Amino acid sequence: MHILLIEDDLSLGSALLGALQLDAFSVQWLRRAGDAPRCLDDASCSAVILDLGLPDGSGLDLLRRWRARDVRTPILLITVQGSLDARLTGLDAGADDYLVKPFETPELLARLRAVLRRQAAQAGDTWRFGALSLLPRQSLAQLEGRTLDLTPREFQLLLALAEGRGEVVGKRTLAQRLEPLGEALDTTALQVHLSNLRRKIGAQRIGTLRGVGYWLESL
């Protein structure tokens, strides 16, 4: 999973970057509101960790702008503003959770995993799709209790499909998720990874909408 971290404090940002990477996330770290994308989409990231107090603007303005454009990406706010009014304002503006500084990093990671579970409509750390189970923190997938031998890209592809909750996930989104910090994979490479994944989990578990994208069946 790819996380967009927007935090101007060097010490905190560096600590969160390391902790997220240890928890099997890939991370893009930005320090200014002006560097944030004008709009997010499913190809950009799985979730955003957003500081409200940025040196060149308000994180709250970013949040409102994204939600006004119907961005559904989970957003976790982090801020020193701990009053009830501030928390209610952030949540009413569209935040999925709100964490007041200073906080313990394990709590932030737990809250992040919680909003990701809600986004994927999953109740626990093991995501279940019929006989198929995914353990995102361990980068493991199991089929009928048997651990599958997936490459890192095959697992990330499966995870991106799982986040779609049975809806079609576009080719561009999948290609970008497999290379979140660089150029998206080309169509040929994506097709190769999809073919290999289908062979390992069963072709019937990945549906196709020709020319558009793919979805994960719960069988």
UniProtKB/TrEMBL annotation:
Record-linked CDD domains: trans_reg_C
Domain OmpR/PhoB-type: 124-218
Alphabetic keyword roster: DNA-binding, Phosphoprotein, Transcription, Transcription regulation
InterPro entries per UniProt: CheY-like_superfamily, OmpR/PhoB-type_DNA-bd, Sig_transdc_resp-reg_C-effctor, Sig_transdc_resp-reg_receiver, WalR-like, WH-like_DNA-bd_sf
DNA-binding region: 124-218
GO molecular function: phosphorelay response regulator activity; transcription cis-regulatory region binding
Keyword Ribosomal protein appears in the UniProt entry: no
Residues with 4-aspartylphosphate modification: D51
GO cellular component, one term: protein-DNA complex
Domain of life: Bacteria
Protein name: Two-component system response regulator BasR
Pfam families associated with the record: Response_reg, Trans_reg_C
BP GO annotations: regulation of DNA-templated transcription
Stretches assigned to the Response regulatory domain: 2-116
